[in-house]
Specification:
Structural class: alpha/beta
Radius of gyration: 22 Å
Distance between the termini: 52 Å
Largest sheet: 7 strands, mixed
Oligomer: single chain
Bound molecules: pyridoxal-5'-phosphate
Strand content: 5-15%
């Protein structure tokens, strides 16, 4: 960047900080200049539609995750959409049928849920384990019936549930497993990456996640047949790219257009090469933040932290905090206060998703079931970012001062 551009850039950055008064963001600086340069190179090549960089990224990604196939898409939501629409596709062996039940944690993201409904399947909500923020195995077992044909796992903020239990449940019951690993790229349970356990695994490269391509995502699978289905669904139902003869306009399936641009692939691939470095920095920053809080003279157990489940080598991007029960009543006021001081926070995923108006609109919880643990996480929880640069002492002091500034009565 030349001096003039740098000055404009810095001015914009300062203006952004002043106007929004952000001192500690949820996710700053996720794109670096070397990432942007890779994107610019694609722009200058004037071939910005899907091409060889996307293919290379997919190949390296599948090798890293340990799945046979990876396919890049324009978002993590699109990856989930492909997973569900592939699961009901006429070309799929043992395909799911209209009305089949799919278990999903109540602590989920909007587009973990909606592809299930859009595919004509029936979501059944499962409560959460407050220790991991992930699906409760206990409640999961209660919810499994003959109608259960799939489980949509959502690995929350780099953490997961006991994957051994999940494996044994699906094995004995012939249930399809789909993993929404959109928040968990790089987390490894017993030497196997999250996302590689299921029939399909999805990842998001949205700007605040472990790596970013601005917008983008990846879907992985192990069967050639499944790969061919998602490949055709990604692109109009076309067989282009699957067969040697690309000249024919053969449409072998139904389809969407969920392709990424080559610009996003170039940025995402460059970030992907730095994933392990990012993981280490974030893991270290997480330890520094927790140590700072628990060793403060003002520490009175204001929070419960969420540790990685046993056997997990986690990849974080946010630090979930659960307020001690006695502070619940002041949570909204407290968050408004610290946000005003420049400390950005957000809910854990989107809290208890069953509370959302959209769930009521589609009458998805007609039995009016309560999800006590998930509600508890919504009532007590929020998260702050874990950044890609080593956290400074002044940032640590800022977090200590503000996060512990709760009224004692
Ligand atoms: C669990 C989960 N699934 C899916 C998504 C969707 O990813 P994207 O924003 O790339 O569409 C998100 C996004 O934050 C997410 O947190």
């Amino acid at each position: 960047m030349n001096l003039k551009n740098r000055k404009i850039f810095n001015k914009l950055l300062i203006e952004k900080k002043i106007s929004k008064k952000i001192v500690y963001d949820l996710s700053p600086n996720s794109l670096f200049n070397d990432d942007i340069i890779e994107g610019i190179k694609v722009l200058l090549s004037k071939r910005i539609t899907i091409g060889n960089i996307t293919k290379k990224f997919e190949k390296e990604f599948s090798k890293y995750i340990g799945s046979k196939y990876a396919l890049m898409v324009n978002s993590g939501s699109s990856a989930n959409l492909l997973a569900l629409f592939a699961s009901i596709n006429p070309l799929k062996k043992n395909k799911l049928k209209f009305g089949d039940e799919v278990l999903i944690p109540a602590l989920c993201w909007s587009t973990s849920l909606w592809p299930i409904v859009q595919a004509g399947l029936k979501p059944v909500f499962v409560d959460t384990d407050p220790k991991t923020l992930n699906i409760s195995i206990e409640d999961l077992k209660k919810k499994i019936t003959k109608k259960t044909k799939a489980i949509m796992l959502v690995h929350v903020l780099g953490n997961c549930t006991n994957m051994d239990h999940i494996k044994s449940i699906i094995k004995s019951k012939n249930i399809t497993l789909i993993e929404d690993a959109c928040e968990s790229l790089g987390s490894k349970y017993k030497n196997k990456y999250l996302g590689s356990y299921g029939t399909f695994g999805s990842f998001s490269f949205y700007y605040s996640h472990q790596i970013t391509s601005g917008e983008g995502g990846m879907i992985v699978c192990n069967s050639r047949k499944d790969y061919e289905i998602i490949h055709s669904l990604r692109s109009h139902g076309w067989d282009r790219g699957l067969k040697n003869n690309n000249k024919n306009f053969n449409f072998i399936n139904s389809g969407f257009n969920l392709r990424p641009t080559e610009i996003a692939a170039a940025i995402g691939y460059n970030q992907f090469k730095k994933l392990n470095t990012f993981k280490k920095i974030r893991s270290n920053n997480r330890k520094l933040i927790i140590n700072k809080l628990v060793n403060s003279k003002n520490w009175t157990n204001q929070y419960q932290f969420v540790d990685a489940i046993k056997h997990l080598d986690p990849s974080w991007f946010g630090l979930p905090l659960l307020l001690n029960k006695k502070y619940i009543k002041q949570k909204a006021r407290f968050l408004a206060k610290i946000n005003k001081k420049g400390l950005e926070t957000r809910p854990i995923i989107s809290g208890n998703f069953v509370n959302q108006k959209s769930v009521k609109l589609y009458n998805l919880n007609h039995k009016k079931e309560k999800f006590y643990n998930t509600q508890n996480i919504e009532d007590r929880g929020f998260f702050i970012g874990i950044h890609l640069k080593k956290i400074s002492n002044s940032e640590l002091n800022f977090l200590e001062k503000n996060l512990l500034d709760l009224d004692e009565n």
